[in-house]
């Protein structure tokens, strides 16, 4: 049974502009042909007159299980795969037919990936890295160091082991060659690409420390390439970025985040010259303004540099990739004070990191920074496919490629905001029932109602310790 | 259908000694008669030749949900009642036909109580106080102050509200009369007795602060009595103890725990003179020795005073009650370092606080301190029934009382350790199927096996922060 | 050599109003007579025409060494007496001829007191309590609990011992009678009055816990009275206040600070009926407004209650005393963030707690709350002398009393702000050289200049840990 | 005036063995000749018959102000130079005529250095690096992160600036070239050599993170060499060590400390091949045993690797340097719990890090590991002079060199412990009055006596919070 899409303007990601009225013939999950409708015939026809068809959107950096809060990981222990599937369905509903998960629990991710690949559940196509090589687990100094001591050792170790396996912080103690061996062992477990830490994650010195030397980084990248996989790096300083590019990474994550220092011209040229994919994490102009109010002067230097970097990267000719660390935070987490002052605390229209909407924010932000309409489309599709070396199958609408595409009501080449006008999503050649997603809301479900007892628990006076103590002393804060 | 128990030595808790060969006739859940077997007839006969029948054991202070660790309360949210039922079944299996829960989540406790009372599930008879009046919830300065900030506000508040309702710390800000009104409102929700804090719980000054004044304490006790309920107090200093007795409490909890100071003679006499039930928390001689090795000198002063108090209380003629804060700690919690140096960290034979075995430890410890065999039995049965004013129904084997009894293989009047030789438990006139308990192991279940990933998470080198840093500096500890 | 003051309006604190033109004859440190100038002769005459003479101001609650920060106590170890003398000189310069120090290091305070009493150094007359009975030292859970572990044990213990001696927290473990013995031993060391804690200091439950029972409080007060000393209490709840009054205190500190609950009418009547001095800590209307912006809703409930209490106390007829916990914070401490949100963080015109100016704020605030001009003067002089039972010598301008007086340029009965127009201060019959005070500025000295190196220590980028880490995570805050 | 030393066995550090009976002629601070006593004449003669003369001992790594505890830095603010002079005098008294201070407050160190060089005060010759390039100050995440927030911002910033100036953590944000510029600016302030961080100091990941990339390290070394100075590195992993050697360092500090991993053979060969000085921090056999009892298994892996490294370094042919991070801890600090479990907590005979005795421990430890007597002497003298490129003047006893020498009672070539038998120290040709050192004991002074008040501060019961709270709960630890 074949499917013929007719009537739409086809923006195939190859041509310089959309082509009105071309039809797309799909069979067995792939695009068979694109051409004049009178030359093509399908057993079923969908009339998309007035619509705009684009390649399925991609996201070069999501975390389908980003909500690694102690409470959440306890509550859903044994169901992490369900959380990941929920997220993959949210992603698909938002037009992303393929997402690259760059940090998460390997086994649950691979299991969800395989369920989706085999058609057993709907969801965005997942490709995953498992752990970021060099990082310790969610309940460690790299992430939330408060948990050991609060949670039971059994659980804390279990969770950390689930994320880290053999490629955690201990690699820093080893020789480059010994690191290479551990990476090889990890790859054999079936991850789709390799991500390693050039800089530390940020809890120690805001990301300024280096996790691995140039030599170790080269060996990690070589191992990935030897295994037929792409390699990428987590960087957060200008030197960490330069090292990752020199090491031969296929792409670098959030490369505009370089602390208070702007990326020097030489590094920009190196990035473009080596055709290394450049993931950018931008702020919108409005988000930039809002954030300024809530962050310290020190932090602000970083946001300013990140913005200058984003603009310079656009000008540099590097291959820009859309990505946003997209994930789902449970509603009780979203309202916590710790969210404030991060860009996840921005209003939804400006918040980059949300899985369902952040890619739209990305497109708006980069449009503001001067990327052309077609460059935006490439950043969200073709460039990602190329950087991840899946462009034989994905990234553009061409005969022979997998039939992943999004149908929009409004023209995305007119305004980036039109990417939000999703009319239909077709993945692997089949129309997705968007209304049914996510099938089982967990983190996207509403908060449970307050218990009857809560009304009687009068917070105002219970939390006595928040009152000032001795009225003329300074000790109330202790 | 009536039941006739024959052949056993009956230790009824009334006579000075056991009576050989008397039969006990039970009908409709109550004891109909105790007498010569040839004078009694039942539709069913149980031959307990060579056994020893005693009144069902009681425990004047348990916490059926004592494992209020953040991780546990997240994992079992919505199932606290199941945890309580599990504990009530463990208690019953251990010979305790009635337990008094003196701190826990009121609604879940009452619901479990009612399920058991109505015969819908087996379990020890529960009578419960709900919150200790004056204490804040599990995730507060009174218990675990690390959790607010780690758990989501929604969950933290939900749990605290579930425990506290309207009778928490804020009462300290009120006048005695206003406290009385709040207590009255709480009683109307259906608790079985009242427990309030004379001293603070211990996180602030090891229990030395006073929570309520003499006047407030009197008003709380009066409210309880006006509502037909008994009143008791949590005390931890000699003055806090004296105040509770003067206020008219029917019993006082762990009254031998008075910090580094021994209870003065006047207070001992007051306790005995007012017939106030004296709950003692004793250490065995062996436990005392073990503990000495692991605690500081400061702590040791308290254990020494508690031991001297226990002995003096026995001599004082006060009505001694068996109790132990008995509860079930999940296996992952029992192995945590925080358990060490507490008496829950003692070996099972000496650990007072365990629900399944702690009452046996109590009996052994108090036997060592010179209580007579019959005084031990009374402490575990009749004295508790009298202090809680349920002695019309419980506490001894007498015609008309509820048929709660334990059948032992060995004579408890020979040695306190014989209480462990439980042959059968009969509650409400029915033989309990001990092997079936607990029906659904939750906290008593085994730990889950290690995940496959754990083998690869090499702890020895991951947790780098535990290594000394600069080798000649002192900074390794920071 | 006698001194005759002529020409001023004399507001003697006894008459209902000022008397124009009366002269005051002083000899040997005391007032010999007050009367018509033509009837009096002195060897020296001071012409205060157009001025206003009032009794020397008093302050019922200062802490001449309130700056008990670790850094300060290290820096000035061995010189605490010098800090106290500096503060006594600041107080004198501000018109306070007598101050009652209600918490501080006993030996240094007594030594400074004696130096001043013997005329060896100028300064406000000091009367002191030493430790607040029941409180632990500056580096303890009662004050700054962060210091043990940061400072060396030797120093931490030394400081705590210097403040606490034998009357600290451990008294809570004792029987009332044993507390009485310890208090008696403490009084023998020479303090001038007794202050004890009815409520805890505030670090545990914002002041809601009770430190001592009614019985213990009565015994402490009895010990003070038996020793010929007055007794007072630190209270912070309505019940703690009631207990202190019932125990027989001569005065109660900051009695309007009762957490979120207003003082009930019965307690107000008790206070007035027992003629117990009522120290009030008021906010000005403007300070009240400013503070509202910076404190939480929970804290605000307390400030509102404290304000209502202040007004109700004025109406109650109780003897109101001026006091403010007055002390000197070093300039580096005043600019610390922990000051914000306390009333010490208010602008100088509204900040109650500053030694040099806070009493003027007090007078302004209570004038706003409706106290009459003469009532204000009494609160600052006569009422304090009476409550402390030094009214034979101090508090009014009467023949036979010590010649402590303040000469103002403007009429204090016209406006409370005129108390600031200090023209001269006479203490013990001698004119004070105000310009020379403080003789040796320590805490009132300027900050040292920045070292040369500071310019090169670029804070903006050094403190990397303040930058957000992983840009899309929430971990920046950990 | 010239000085002739006669009668001793001269161990000049050049010959393979000591030469009996040679005389040493010294004039104007330098050695004029060494030869047969009948051929040499001095205006003054010192008869050292039966003694052993060796070159003045050197130490390649001391911290003359290592006691950077908050309390100490407050107490001695403005007198850091005095503390440094005291330490230099302790060093001299212990036979060290030259010490290399590799981390400390630059200005105070240079000032002490100059005072000693100009003969204004006795003391070991100081050569200093100032800050370790890349590290933040004493009150920062690199050292003691608890202090910001406890100390006033003014003081905390002042201290950090004094240590760090422009070469702190912020360099990690910069490009290699920009780091080079900052280093150049720092060198212009007059330090004697350059030390930078290859690995982080250890508070973040026990030293596993890298502070600077290979490229940055090369540029730092080049800047040092361009300025005519030697360069060295702080390393703590095998990769950090390799990078430092490759970068061209003249010596590497504590190169046997590489976490849990032993230095690979290739790196050992690189070290020897490049003639890079190898500072070793050894444990004695006995110290090793003692430490095993007090450290965790994780830490133990590091000590084991460090010991294997020390032995392998001896075998590798690398130039071994004596050093020990030698410094003086104040007595109140030495007795703090944080010292335990560090090698500073070992008994004096085994504790490497003490300034007065640690070099003797070093010699004993390395003798145990098989270094020959002459190799030990070289490690303590000539090797250090060569690595620091001061061998034209120092390190051996040769005509023309500075007359720094130590006279021993016992033969150091017989046993390493004989280095402790110091008979006399001659520095710059003059006999040092050892008994007079240190001239002004500060950190080496005794603790002040307990105040009178201390006897009354009964610790056992004051620190109530150390007592268990609710006796059957786990909350005592919170």
UniProtKB/TrEMBL annotation, chains A, B, C, D:
PANTHER family found in the cross-reference section: ALPHA-D-RIBOSE 1-METHYLPHOSPHONATE 5-TRIPHOSPHATE DIPHOSPHATASE
Tell me which InterPro entries the record gives. Amidohydro-rel (IPR006680), Metal-dep_hydrolase_composite (IPR011059), Metal_Hydrolase (IPR032466), Metallo-dep_Hydrolase (IPR051781)
Where on the tree of life does the source sit, at the highest rank? Bacteria
List, alphabetically, the Pfam families matched: Amidohydro_1
Q: What is this protein called?
A: Amidohydrolase family protein
Amidohydrolase-related domain span? 52-432
């Amino acid at each position: 049974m074949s499917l013929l899409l007719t009537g739409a303007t086809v923006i195939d990601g190859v041509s310089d502009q959309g082509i009105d009225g071309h039809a797309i013939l799909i069979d067995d999950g792939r695009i068979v042909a694109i051409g004049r409708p009178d030359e093509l015939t399908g057993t079923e026809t969908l009339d998309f007159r007035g619509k705009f068809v684009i390649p399925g959107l991609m996201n070069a950096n999501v975390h389908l299980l980003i909500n690694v809060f102690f409470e959440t990981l306890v509550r859903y222990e044994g169901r992490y795969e369900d959380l990941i599937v929920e997220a993959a369905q949210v992603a698909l509903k938002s037009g992303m037919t393929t997402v690259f998960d760059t940090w998460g629990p390997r086994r649950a991710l691979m299991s969800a990936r395989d369920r989706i690949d085999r058609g057993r559940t709907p969801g965005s196509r997942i490709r995953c890295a498992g752990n970021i090589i060099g990082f310790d687990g969610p309940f460690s100094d790299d992430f939330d160091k408060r948990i050991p001591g609060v949670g039971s050792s059994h659980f804390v170790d279990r969770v950390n082991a689930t994320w880290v396996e053999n490629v955690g912080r201990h690699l820093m103690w080893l020789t480059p060659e010994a690191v290479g061996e551990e990476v090889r062992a990890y790859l054999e477990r079936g991850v789709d690409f390799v991500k390693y830490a050039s800089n530390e994650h940020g809890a120690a010195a805001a990301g300024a420390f280096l996790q691995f030397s140039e030599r170790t980084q080269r060996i990690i990248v070589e191992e990935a390439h030897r295994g037929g996989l792409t390699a990428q790096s987590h960087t957060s300083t200008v030197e960490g970025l330069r090292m990752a590019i020199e090491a031969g990474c296929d792409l670098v994550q959030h490369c505009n985040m370089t602390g208070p220092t702007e990326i020097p011209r030489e590094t920009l040229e190196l990035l473009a010259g080596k055709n290394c994919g450049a993931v950018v994490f931008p702020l919108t102009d409005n988000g930039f303004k809002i954030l300024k109010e809530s962050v310290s002067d020190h932090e602000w230097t970083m946001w300013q540099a990140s913005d200058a970097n984003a603009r310079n990267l656009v000008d540099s000719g590097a291959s820009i990739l859309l990505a946003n660390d997209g994930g789902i935070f449970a509603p009780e987490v979203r309202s916590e004070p710790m969210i404030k002052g991060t860009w996840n605390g921005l209003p939804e229209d400006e918040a980059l990191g949300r899985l369902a909407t952040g890619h739209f924010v990305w497109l708006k932000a980069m449009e503001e920074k001067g990327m052309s309409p077609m460059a935006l489309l490439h950043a969200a599709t073709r460039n990602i496919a190329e950087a991840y070396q899946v462009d034989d199958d994905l990234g553009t609408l061409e005969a022979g490629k997998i039939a992943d595409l999004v149908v929009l009501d409004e023209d995305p080449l007119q305004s980036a905001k039109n990417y939000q006008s999703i009319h239909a999503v077709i993945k692997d050649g089949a129309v997705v029932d968007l209304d049914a997603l996510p099938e089982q809301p967990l983190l996207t479900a509403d908060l449970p109602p307050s218990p009857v007892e809560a009304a009687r628990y009068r917070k105002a006076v219970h939390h006595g310790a928040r009152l000032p103590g001795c009225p003329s002393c300074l000790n109330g804060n202790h």
